[in-house]
């Protein structure tokens, strides 16, 4: 009887594993909900999902703009349980094709989380500025690094 149940359970378990997404969309908030940003963000996708420490994770940000953007920078701030722990700045043109034409575009940023990254709740804030230092958008989203040594979970 146990062998029959095992034979039924294994295919069911493997089928469920195939349904687990390899990427995860996450909730995005604007830094200032009353601001009229020039760049509108429609979503963020984190891949792979779950994030694995020591391996590249890609944050793909879907956005749109009413005017072309010739260049600028992205400022990324990371907080751990509400405490600012890291900031980095990237040239916009290394994260997407420039010039950015009016319409939809994607910013894709890959990051390797060190193997010693502690588990817990993180918040990533991304500000985009044009070449004249005019803020085009500012978003934030949360994700969690799990307590299991090699996995992380995005808050949805």
Automatic annotation (TrEMBL):
Gene Ontology BP annotations: intracellular sterol transport
Keyword match Transport: yes
Keywords: Lipid transport, Signal, Transport
Source organism, top-level taxon: Eukaryota
Entries under CDD domains matching the protein: PG-PI_TP
One function term, GO molecular function aspect: sterol binding
Signal peptide: 1-25
Keyword field contains Transport: yes
SUPFAM superfamilies, A to Z: E set domains (SSF81296)
Positions of the MD-2-related lipid-recognition domain: 28-143
Gene3D superfamilies in alphabetical order: 2.60.40.770
Chain's role: Catalyzes the intermembrane transfer of phosphatidylglycerol and phosphatidylinositol.
Family per similarity comment: Belongs to the NPC2 family.
UniProt subunit comment: Monomer.
Record's protein name: MD-2-related lipid-recognition domain-containing protein
Species name: Davidia involucrata
